[in-house]
Amino acid sequence: MRAFLIACLLPITAAAADGYVRVPGGDIKTTLAYEDVRGPMRVPPFEMMTRLVTNAEFRAFVQRHPQWRRDRVPEVLAGPGYLAHWPGALQLTPSAQEAQPVTRVSWFAARAYCEAQGARLPAWLEWEYVAAADAVKRDARGDSTWRERILQWYAQPASQPLPAAGASVANIYGVRDLHGVAWEWTEDFSAMLVTADNRTQGDPGRKEFCGAGALSVADREQYAMLMRIALLSSLQARDSTSSLGFRCVREVS
Amino acid sequence: MYRNTFILFLSVLATAGLTSCGDSSSRGGLQTVAAPVAHTGGSKQGDFGPPQGEPVKAVLTSPPLVPPATGRTTPAKVIVELEVIEKEMAISEGVRYMFWTFGGTVPGSFIRVRQGDTVEFHLKNAPDSKMPHNIDLHGVTGPGGGAASSFTAPGHASRFTFKALNAGLYVYHCATAPVGMHVANGMYGLILVEPPGGLPKVDREYYVMQGDFYTVGKYREKGLQGFNMESAIDEKPTYVLFNGSEGALTGDNALQAKTGETVRLYIGNGGPNLVSSFHVIGEIFDKVWYEGGTHVQENVQTTLIPAGGAAMMEFHVEVPGSYVLVDHSIFRAFNKGAVAILKADGPEVKAIYSGKEVDETYLGDRAGSSLAAVATAASAASAGTLTVEEQVKAGQALFAGTCSTCHQATGQGLPGVFPPLAKSDYIAKDRMRPVDVMLRGMSGPVTVNGQAYNSVMPPMSQLTDDAVANISTYVLNSWGNPGGRVTKAEVSKRRSEPAPAVAPTH
User: Fold this and answer.
1) B119-132 pLDDT, tens per residue?
2) Architecture in CATH of A2-251
3) Sign of the CA dihedral A30, A34, A40, A43?
């Protein structure tokens, strides 16, 4: 609680030198409907990377931790698509790819990257909390123009080259790339839909189809969020796709 | 399904004392059993046992084509491989849209199996897809119609198996959240489950699906258009289309047929929101398997196809020409794109449809003889020999059509309502007044022959300069008015001038 109060007193964009920014705690009414929680949920303060992890950064990690090279990683930790867009196990195409967000990374690999940084993947709630903001408001989700703009990403084919990480406009916390660039892994992605927790007991598959979304989602107009949830829930931890990247978060230092 | 009916059919015959006709030729003719109404027994009668023979790979076709009949008489194992592809395509000329598709087309590939078949379904999601997808086939018996079993991430494939227990024409669609958006982006298609005896043979079969689309830009606004969530929720589509694009089935892409052929359409409605009042302009459906089911209605003009529903229909083409497929909620056809063409080639059959035999102006109750006066005046005017008499005659004919409704054929008007033209002091003041009133209309108070009037006459802007000149000349030379003449040139000049100041009203 004390940490929360202190965070509130800090300027809202307290950028750390190493690419993380402090995100003050607060409440969020999540898009997901948790059966055991009514009303908003509390998010304690944390620090989040201001942009997505790039190919160059991930290559540096793989160089230091060769067990994550695509030709050495066990298949249970990274499926066949893992880093398949790199010309070689440690090789990038010059220029563009270095600065682009890394994609085709399994959840295991993304998690290992963050751990090596003394960080972790964000919880869905943390990600959603930060992604709800626009440049001036902490919760812009009621703004139909903003929602419309986010949805435009879905009109772009996934075959288009990704923009450089950090090239998009920062939101009120100073965080970029949350929308319109790539999907992002979350720590608890596998618990969002098909899970052993009490939200899905008795009907494990129900969220995957048809009205499905309508059963388990509180705000049915948050289509962009719905699609993120659907995408994450379709994946296994060893999977990767050409438009799925990640960033890390860490506890307030 | 068929066996039950077949037995019923035989017993009816037996009761009637007939002993023959129980041959296989009656198998496809389920709809020929007129009374009592036959019931197929549904899914309970749809299991014909385990698949026989080698597995068969299903032939899939892109719209508007339909795979050939299965031709099988025993249940088979059928392998269906369908790939989900997200791709940008034209939704209208110069307008691009990011479609999500089953098989690279909107609607998706047509699947054709036989009742009792065991279908092994492989759903692949292309590696460069952004979204996870799945498939719910309305022809599947089982929770979710396959959706839960086919939820597939980009770059993955899933497999599930079902037995097609019910014959009919069924929609399939993606059911991943948000389901409406997946459907609105084009993720639907049709699966035909043939009855055991197949469907009656026809000359042509086509596959068409209606869908509603929601773009950020207006109808035909150029460029890449994104999905508009607000208008989708409000159910106000920008486009209502057959086969996913304006022009998918018009011009060079029109469906083809020949006269003398029987055409069967497999029509689905993907929605996501609108119900279709499906109609073919210039044809009457000889048969409609309404709702894609087993029974047939005959001689139908328009058939309702619900969102997430389908229907089959047949018609015999007698006369050549273009037949227009529309959603008869007709603004959708004219303002949102719901138009397709079936072009029938062949010799004219005048006995059935003559084509246009007469094209003439219709001028209400005026006699043909007086119309001749209009024609005479027109040709005299262009020859420069027009006389006042000719103008009066022509004006009289025109007056009878346009003006006499209010001012009466006698020019007396209706006291207090429509001012008189006969012996009018208003007209006597200026021979151009009839011209001005016809060109500009008139409203507000006016006194004519001592009586006050206050009503509205709209401008008669549909009248040509010739007509205005002739009517004015007729009025000036009738009913005790002072006479005179108005020429076409004067009218033309008057029309091009700005409206004069408010006419004096005495």
Assistant:
1) 999 999 998 899 99
2) Alpha-Beta Complex (3.90)
3) negative
